[in-house]
Amino acid sequence: MPLQLPHHLRMVGSGMSLRKWMLNSEDLTPEDEMPVGRNVLALDGIQESANYTCVAMSSLGIIEAVAQITVKSLPRPPGTPMVTETTATSITITWDSGNPDPVLYYIIQYRGKTADSKYETMDGYHLPRYSIGCLLAQHRTTIRVLSHYR
């Protein structure tokens, strides 16, 4: 399901022009409410991609500009990290990106399994593989992987 966020399109300019917004051939600004000089279109709950057209009209003529709004679904989180290599004080983990779209980078967080342990954070990794060193032998570690998309 697409994420529903408010989005505002604003047109400004100089001169005494009337401004309106259109979606395909539908006027989104009633003719008797067309403002002079500035018009803001608030898009709430949009679920489909569309082109919104800004039309400015004055005694000099008519000009149009198109704002393309693309709605995308939220990406899935990366798969569960799997330990693929171990030594006494290090592990290597791999995971599935979980998405067809490319990941900008991954964030790896890990900590010891004690109440006072804080997460160590490593970010900017581009591959779904990471080695964690300097671990304490015979201690449990919690690991989580996050992904950052464009």
Automatic annotation (TrEMBL):
GO terms for MF: protein tyrosine phosphatase activity
PROSITE patterns xref list: FN3 (PS50853)
Keyword Membrane found: yes
Enzyme Commission number: 3.1.3.48
Gene3D superfamilies: Immunoglobulins
CDD domains attached to this UniProt entry: FN3
InterPro entries: FN3_dom (IPR003961), FN3_sf (IPR036116), Ig-like_dom_sf (IPR036179), Ig-like_fold (IPR013783)
Signal peptide, first to last residue: none
Domain Fibronectin type-III: 77-150
Keywords: Disulfide bond, Glycoprotein, Hydrolase, Immunoglobulin domain, Membrane, Protein phosphatase, Receptor, Repeat, Signal, Transmembrane, Transmembrane helix
Membrane topology: Single-pass membrane protein
Recorded catalytic activity of this chain's protein: O-phospho-L-tyrosyl-[protein] + H2O = L-tyrosyl-[protein] + phosphate
The UniProt record lists the keyword Repeat: yes
Listed GO CC annotations: membrane
Major subcellular location class: membrane
Subcellular location: Membrane
Family classification: Belongs to the protein-tyrosine phosphatase family. Receptor class 2A subfamily.
The protein, known as: protein-tyrosine-phosphatase
